[in-house]
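Structure in, sequence out. Go:
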């Protein structure tokens, strides 16, 4: 499967663009709009991953702030400040199984070692394990009450019969189990490792080049590459990458 450049979130000169970040100012220099990139303690440039901005008074802007404007000459010409988008949850804590007739067992301290060992000894058959919280993540300040909040281990079966898998897993784990078939387009642990092996090596030279603006990568079913902005010229450089296995995720993106 190939990916056409036209399918990527390219930002052309003159396009409308939007992002949420922080504004950095220094005396005698134009203000810069900064991506939410990690900053090393030894880095003397707090806005290494960002773009210059014009058209807005940087004084008194909240942090973070969402700005919309025109991308022109490698600068964001700001036209409006917008409400920040809602913060997406960092992890999926949903439980995609119906509640048992007797309800979920209270507690979240069941030993998961044997469960993990079994799943990871069959990497071609399973997705990575995850934890679900049917009643929400514990928020109580009482240790005893928090320890009784039900936790569910969600097991996604990439190959095999979930009913048979559940029978094999029940003796290995005494807590709550949710065993479901994996989505058809999702990858097993083994397939995810293949994606890592192929893409991480391929992206290394681009990460070492500061002109690409890449500031983070994460790998699951694809390699997600976080970068400042994806221009047509930069995208043309990325055509040597296995783009079918990569999601390019520009911070400053078309509006």
């Amino acid at each position: 499967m190939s990916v056409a450049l036209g399918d990527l979130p390219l930002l052309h000169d003159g396009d409308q663009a939007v992002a949420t970040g922080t504004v950095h100012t220094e005396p005698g220099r134009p203000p810069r709009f900064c991506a939410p990139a990690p900053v090393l303690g030894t880095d003397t440039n707090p806005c290494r991953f960002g773009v210059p901005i014009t058209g807005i008074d940087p004084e008194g802007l909240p942090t973070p702030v969402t700005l919309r404007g025109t991308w022109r000459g490698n600068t964001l010409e700001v036209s409006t400040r917008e409400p920040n988008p809602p913060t997406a949850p960092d992890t999926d804590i949903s439980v995609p199984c119906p509640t048992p007739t007797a309800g979920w067992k209270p507690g979240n301290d069941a030993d998961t070692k044997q469960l993990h060992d079994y799943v990871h000894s069959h990497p071609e058959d399973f997705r990575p394990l995850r934890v679900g919280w049917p009643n929400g993540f514990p928020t109580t300040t009482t240790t005893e009450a928090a320890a009784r909040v039900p936790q569910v281990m969600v097991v996604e079966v990439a190959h095999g019969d979930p009913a048979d898998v559940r029978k094999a897993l029940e003796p290995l784990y005494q807590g709550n189990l949710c065993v479901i078939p994996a989505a058809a387009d999702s990858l097993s642990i083994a397939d995810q490792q293949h994606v890592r092996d192929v893409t991480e090596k391929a992206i290394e030279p681009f990460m070492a080049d500061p002109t690409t603006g890449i500031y983070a990568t994460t790998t699951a079913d694809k390699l997600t590459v976080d970068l400042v902005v994806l221009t047509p010229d930069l995208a043309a450089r990325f055509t040597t990458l296995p783009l079918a296995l990569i999601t390019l995720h520009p911070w400053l993106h078309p509006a």
